[in-house]
Amino acid sequence: MLIASQMEPTHARRVYPCFDEPAMKATFNIRIIHDPSYVALSNMPAIDVSEVKDENGSLWTVTTFNTSLKMSTYLTAFVICDFDYITRTEQGNEIRIWARKEAVKNGYVDYAVNITGPIFSFLEDILNVSYPLPKTDLVALPDFGAGGMENWGLMIFQEASLMNLPSDEFTSRKAMIALIVSHELGHQWFGNLVTMNWWNDLWLNEGLASYFEYLGATFVEPKLSLDKIFYAHVVQPVLREDSEIARSLSESEDKIKGSFSLMYLFDNITYSKGASITWMLSGFLTEKLFIRALTSYLKEFSFSNANQDDLWTHIQMVVDAQDEVQLPAPVKQIMDSWTCQNGFPVLTLNLTSGTIRQEQFFNKNNRKSTDSYNNTWIIPISWMRNGSSQPLTWLDKSSKMFPEMQVSESDYDWILLNVNLSGYYRVNYDQLNLKRLARLLENDPKAIPAVSRFQLIDDVFALTDFGYVPIETALELTKYLAREDELFIWNMVLLNLIPENLESTLKNHEVYPLLKKYLLKRMLPIYHYYAGFIRQNADALEDDYFAQVYLEKLLATACWLGLQDCLDLSSELYAKWRDNPEYKIPLLIRRTVCCYGVAAGSDKEWNFAWEMYNHTDSVEEDEDILLYAMSCAKESWLLYRYLQYGLSDTLFSSNCTSVIISHVVTKDIGHHIAWEFVTENWPLLSQGYGHELLHDVLKAMGRFVKTDVQIQELQVFYNATLEEDEREAITMLLESAKLENTERRKLLIKIANWLEKNIDD
């Protein structure tokens, strides 16, 4: 048995009567009466443990905790468990990590306990504000809705966020633990000590904690590159999401009170946009001034509440007290343009005149002529010319001339904006500069810092998607890739060129043989570099974080493009595992190897995967991999049999059935088989899974819809099975899928034409 609480945002009122508002801080006296064989934990240390008998004469334990500091209701917490713990003391703070007894015994939380103290000290030292509690508990729960929760003095995590096998030397697992722990520790200052006035300024908690999460994690894992990982994990994904439809970072209270749920505030805008804006702010202030302002903000509002204007005031005070950093406007005016407006700007650069203009980045493909976006931002521009950094400059109106950015006739005179990711925006260069940058990449890619190469290419693909520039412009920037040795850049390029959900569509299109020739030629150097490690000593990659998170996509693409060496490598390693089930295929590529091992083989290979799946001691991660791999079979009867197995209750738990169907439906030969299977077995399936399954399958089928006739075929089936309102929704889904497919075909023809011309370059 196990009891644990989760109060944020508004559940404290379900546990005890209270004014459940973040600004109504109080001190709490907590006492818990529980079964004597369990231990009770709360925010504060226990000060008394006694016994009491109930009316039946049974003994109970009473644990009384010390009075808490002044705090918000949503941070009160308790856990009743029979866990064990390991402990360390750091600067007088007793840190205990609690987990299931066998997990502690096997050393699963050793890594977490070794980094918690150092991250604590790092934050105390950098912020110059000491942690006010005498103890800190971190508890790993087998099941927990969030990744972690920062309750003051009693942080709660799901096991996956806190545990790793002592034998697992790979950085990626440790990095994930370091990031989550670091995030929750950041909250001990931003959120717990100083809390936002109300939920509309939640980003003051989450954005700042997400910023320090990366500082703390790279402090304890110095092998992680802070700027690369921050760009790839935080900025780039949220730029993809944060468009004109999204909300702004800081909303008015009324707007949120009018909406039904606070939960939707716990999204990527709050976390990642909050962290990106913080990064930008720290960049143009300098970290020294930024931290100085945070210290002053934390000291003034300790044990109380603040809103974003309070933070701006403290930054302004620090800026006014020195003369090294000059800002073009008051801090509040600069920062409100980023936190109170939705979306973000795109800067368009004309190098002949040296003019930069800004506009909101929106999707021009579906813009209605009535829409008008007149948002302007106050934008810090860090830039370099011909490889040397230039002084920071600002764009504070819709357009402005920068004489220093006019370039000469020389092909070697180029400009790069937003260097090192100093700003939260995209850049649209003119053709002249892009040509020069493309040539530079081909001659000397390292002249542009890695993060800037990533940014440059990702921006151009995003501009392509939103109709600012033609696809050919983006493709020009991929010519140099044979000289690109950074996996995180390759990963972004491949996700843009071969999105995961389109693999089977592309495979059947005339663009495929062209892509194959064009990309393989460029992938070979980096592919062989990593394949060498995989064949000789995969453990040598244990410190290469990006290899662990992105190598899989590179390998999968090489195999998908039919690179013989990749297919051989997969068959070799899979056969090695078949000969000796004790052998472990390197985890970083296990999914791809199993998939192509099954694909290249016959029923023998498939049956082995099935056997290993049914092995009692297989871990969940491997089960997911095998469920996927078995859908890679290239023979129709194997896929059909797999789907049949999926129906049987004795072979699978029910939630696997829909997973199996959705895996099979995405495969090039699988989607017809899966569709037939679903329609034939619908009476059975609809009892167990109802419409969600149908919805998922139809969504996947939608990727293959090219004609109205195909839509009608699908319609005939679901008209008979769905309620009217659901039918409408699905019809809309398929209609928009058809439109998307038509647009995509146009795009693929353009790509194919470009590849034809450039294939031999």
UniProtKB/TrEMBL annotation:
ERAP1-like C-terminal domain ranges (all copies): 414-734
Residues that bind Zn(2+): 183, 187, 206
Superkingdom of this protein's organism: Eukaryota
Co-factor note (free text): Binds 1 zinc ion per subunit.
InterPro entries named among the record's database cross-references: Aminopeptidase_N-like_N, Aminopeptidase_N-like_N_sf, ERAP1-like_C_dom, M1_APN-typ, Peptidase_M1, Peptidase_M1_aminopeptidases, Peptidase_M1_dom, Peptidase_M4/M1_CTD_sf
GO cellular component terms, A-Z: cytoplasm; extracellular space; membrane
Entry membrane topology: Single-pass type II membrane protein
Enzyme class at the top of the EC tree: hydrolase
Domain called Peptidase M1 membrane alanine aminopeptidase: residue spans: 111-338
Cofactor(s) annotated in UniProt: Zn(2+)
Pfam family of the protein (one): Peptidase_M1
Enzyme active site: 184
Gene3D superfamilies xref list: 1.25.50.20, 2.60.40.1910, Neutral Protease Domain 2 (1.10.390.10), tricorn interacting facor f3 domain (2.60.40.1730)
Domain Aminopeptidase N-like N-terminal, residue spans: 2-75
Site (described: Transition state stabilizer): 271
Major subcellular location class: membrane
Keywords: Aminopeptidase, Glycoprotein, Hydrolase, Membrane, Metal-binding, Metalloprotease, Protease, Signal-anchor, Transmembrane, Transmembrane helix, Zinc
GO biological-process terms attached to the record: peptide catabolic process; proteolysis
GO molecular function, a single term: metalloaminopeptidase activity
UniProt subcellular location: Membrane
EC number: 3.4.11.-
Family that this chain belongs to: Belongs to the peptidase M1 family.
The protein's name in its UniProt record: Aminopeptidase
